[in-house]
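Box 4.2: Ligand-aware structure prediction
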Amino acid sequence: MRRLSIVLLVLFVFGSSAWGWWPRGHGILTRAAVQTLPADAPAFLRAGGGMVAHAAVDPDVAKNRGTLHLEKAGHPVHYFNMELFEAGDLPASRYAFGRLCAELGKRPEQVGLLPYVTAEYTEQLALAFAEFRKWPESPFIQNKCLIYAGYVAHFAQEVCQPLNLTIHWNGRVVDGKSSRTRIHEKIDGLLQNLDLKPEEIAEGLAAAPVDSLMTGIVAQMHRSFGEVESALSMEQYLVPKDVDWKNEPAVRAFAEKHAREAARFTVSLYLTAWKMSEKIRLPGWIDRGEMDHFGAQKK
Ligand SMILES: [Zn+2]
């Protein structure tokens, strides 16, 4: 067991290069999600697919060695290794999670922080929506809603890439060693390599808010984790050099199924944030009208 944990440690320190869906994949999924929004969602958001899809790539842009602190902080937020932590009842904060990991002899970055970053950005979007409800004409508030919606999209979609939820992220781990088939990046690239169309992903898609944010995220993580075997089974098409996988129906069916699920979950979190924003009480010191105009309206 000790040997296994040392090997795993080495794997995660030196071998974790998982990226999640490739940039154009996030763009396709995010445009599909915005198109799926119901007619009573805010009009600026329904019209803002381009900006939201643009921002949805930023958490991957942040993986840059020229910005070391951001890169180091940002890396573990893109995954959660379900085998290393019982995700049934996650502590409420990253810090309590870190302490619990320490008690269990694990490091938070070894397990991953994906559920926390997903919840945190959904709540950030809920706050921006609450401000929008109060100052619906403010372009600044609308702009930041679009940016936060992009961040929510990125992490919601990472939750829906099954290989972001497992120690077998880069091929099955046997006796503590990864088979390193590079299956992760092959699946990450599927949506853009198959050139899936946002309008086809969005067709007939419907989403609902989750009742409780973290519970909903963890439930989706368990659904994705249930798809790990299916994802690994794609190795038979995607790993050998001589398979015409772009014309393989099983590969397309896999990509379409997970694209629809990722778009649906993205919308589900948008609707959750929108619902939360209804009950959020903004403190009295926030006066966007006056603050944003630097006193121009003062008498
Ligand atoms: Zn990512």
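In the box above, the bound molecule is zinc ion. The first strand starts at residue 173 and ends at 174.
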